[in-house]
Every structure is written in structure tokens, then in C-alpha cells.
Write a structure and sequence with these properties.
The strands form 9 sheets. Strands 14-13-17-18-20-19 form a 6-stranded mixed β-sheet, covered by helices on one side. Strands 1-2-7-6 form a 4-stranded mixed β-sheet, sandwiched between helices. A 3-stranded antiparallel β-sheet has the order 23-25-24. The chain is built from 15 helices and 25 strands. A hairpin with a 2-residue loop joins strand 9 and strand 10. The chain has 487 residues and is of the alpha+beta class. Helices cover 32% and strands 21% of the residues.
Amino acid sequence: MLEIELMQLVETIRSRHAESQTVELKSAANGCPTRLYDTLSSFSNQDDGGTIVFGVDERHDYEVVGVYDVQDLMKHVVEQCNQMHPKVRAVFTTCNIEGRNVVSAEIPALDIADRPCFYEGRGRYRGSYVRVGDADEPMTEYEIYSYEAFRRKYEDELRIVERASIDDLNADQLLRYTLALKDGRPNLARIDQERVLELMSIIKEGHPTLAGVMLFGLYPQAFLPQLSVIATRLPATGKSDSDDTRFVDNARIEGTLTEQLQGAIAFIRRNMRIRTTIDENGTRIDHEEYPVEAIRELVLNALIHRDYSIHTQGMPIQVQMFNDHLVITNPGGLYGRMTVDQLGHMQPDTRNPLIATAMELLGQTENRYSGIPTVRRLLNDAGLPEPEFENQRGEFRVTLRLHNPATQSAAETPRHDGIPSRKKSRQQDILEFCTIPRTRRQIAEHLGISNVAYAMNRYVYPLVTQGLLALGIPEKPASRKQTYRTA
């Protein structure tokens, strides 16, 4: 960070009277804060890292109070950084504001394979933190497990279901799967079915695996009761409405993954409103609220890529339909290094490769990472807003909307004299805001949009395509440290 950028950051903080997801304030007028490990941990554990600003006191109207001693402060911060595991390497910047020294410590994001970063004095399970808004919260056991699972390549889909036997699997579906596997594979074709099922980890140690039960079980919920889909149709527009407790329709959708896919689609189609038009030839045309193929891709993604660990085994996938939007939530956040911004643009790590491959063989998916681009194309063709993806603590959520509530471009508002005037467009606002380089999160926060990926897809990327915004790191467009500046 340059000195001028630190001064601008302090100015922004004071104008907003708030910290943020990536900025933490510490007064440090009378000495170095003694407990920085929670913030050092949380910033290291998020993709954008973060910055600790010393010398601004939020308890006194965000006044610039300065630091007691620049060199001593940096020394003590480094000492605390060295008590973290892995060690944190802060980058310091100093500037002078109103005759007082302000110091920033930029905390870089750790690679996901090295997370969680934790305070050695409290250990991995008590010293790991995550940033939630402007607060540092202790990580849950599941959040810590998620990092462990990726680093050590845990295969939760291959867990043995000891109460089940091969007689609890559908023999016809197993035969269909085996024949599909052997097709075009002469070496595999010479092996008997039982051995093939063992090689493919459908069966292990004489029992079906979790993947085997969910793919081919006669009734999977006899062994895994919560691995299902809970679908509800609510009469209101959101969770803040008073009518949300009254269901218009609700269902628990059980069975194999294929049966759950079919059941979820049937539920959504049953509860979608139909708009009818008559073309110039007098032919009646029915238009469903959401493209069914897009719904299918999203439900399929939830079923294939959800977390099947013991930590989430009691959490079903949820489908919630409101009057103006639809929400699909599945347990487990994005897996591996994939970020929301990269969805549909990069090949992801696969949490459940056996299930993904089997669903491809069974004809349910192409397994070519084309699902998200297909969803975006179908929604665009239907004139609907971009899908909103949210990767939250322990769950992944996608929202489809019938209308775009955030659109403010060229919106008319009444002036005091009663004559309509035009609001400044979001695009114009972004161009003015980005006269200095800004990160993805800074732009989203400026727009007041909590979903960073939605803000980027809806407003920023089109400006980049038009050449109105320039990339700070053009050779690495998907870099987590990418910045945007008005061209």
C-alpha cells in the first residue's frame, strides 16, 4: 500500500464511521494492542486478506489519534505475527495525518492449503478465527474441518455405511451403471460386476459406501435420513415478511440422488406461475417463471457438490420459493480454491468425484463444468437477472430473482419541486469511485451490495469489457488481489 492510499483509506473510514470486512481499527495511542491474534487469524483465513489500521480511534468519533511510537509498534506487531501458525508476514505502511503518525499492517491471505491460520497459544480449535462483517468470530469445528478435508483430500463420499448391505441397492441400476462403465473399456469388460463395484468404491469391505447408497439405494434415507431435499413454497417475498410461517406447499423429497433431482424439479414446476401469451398465428404459448433447465442444473449441482461429511449429515438441501425469488441452499461452502467470482469461469476442485462421475455415466450430467454458464445463458435468454451466489459459513446459496431489486440505473426520483429527475447510474458511480484502484470487495461495499460476485457480474465486468475500467493486474484477471481503475 502506498502512503497516499493509506491516507485515502483513513479518509474513507472516517467518512463512513465504520470498519469493514477487510479493515480493522486499533487506537494504539498509548501502546501496542496486546491481542491481535483474532484479527491476524481472520484476515489470513479470508481470500481478500485485510488491513489493520493503527492510530484511528473508533470510540472517539474515528478521530486520528496517532500511534505512540512507529518503530516499537511495528516490532510488537511482528512479535504477535510470529506467534501465529503459519506465521503471518505483515506489510507495513506509515503516513502522517494532521500531524500524527498512522500505521497500517496489511495481512495477506493464506493459500487455502495452509489454512486455518491460528494462534499457537490457544491451538487450532480455539485460536482460529473468521471475519464476519467487521467482527472476528471463532471458527466452528466444521469450518476447521473443511480446510483439513481439502488439504488431506478426505473422501467423505466413500465412507462405509455399515448398516447397509449390497441387497439394499437396486440391482437393475447397478447393472446399468456397470455396463456403462465397461462400454469402451475392454480391460474393465473382462472383470465381473462385484469386482467392478469394489474398484469404483460403490462397495467397500462388503458394505455399500455413502456414494453407493445415495446413487443406487432402494431407500437411502433408511440409513441417512437427513440426506434429502426440503422444499417449501412461501406466500411472501422474503424472510422478513410476517406470512413466512405459513406454507403454501412443502415437501420432503427423498430417494436416490436422481429421484431427489426429479422430485425437486417437479415441486418447483408445480409451484411456478405460468404466463400465457398468444402469438401472431393465434397459438397459445406458456412461459414458466424460471427456465426449468436452469433449475435442473442448480439442483443437480447442490446434490453432487454438497458436503457429505458427518458434520453436515443432518442437514438437508433446502429449496425455498417466494413470490419474487427462489433460493437453493446446500450444506458445505465452495470446495477448494474456487471463489464465487470464479464460478463458471474456471474448472473447480471436485468434492465428490465418484458421485459426479457416476451421475455422468447415468446420463444426469455432462460433468464438463458447463452448468453455471448454462444457467447464466438461460436466465439471460429469459430476461431474468443474473443468479446470485453466496458462499457463507458452512453453506452455499444461489438465489434466482424475477426482478432486479438493486437496479438503480436511470431510475426516476421526484425532486423537491415535483419534477422527476434522474439518479446517477450505478456504472457512473463506479467509474467515479474507481479513480483510484479499488478491490472487488471495496466496490461492492461502496454500492451497498453484500454479494460481491453479483456486484462484479452485474456492474463491474461489463465496464471492463467496454474498456471503461482497467485491471490493475491484467496478466492475471482472476487474481484475488485484482484491482479496478477508471480507464
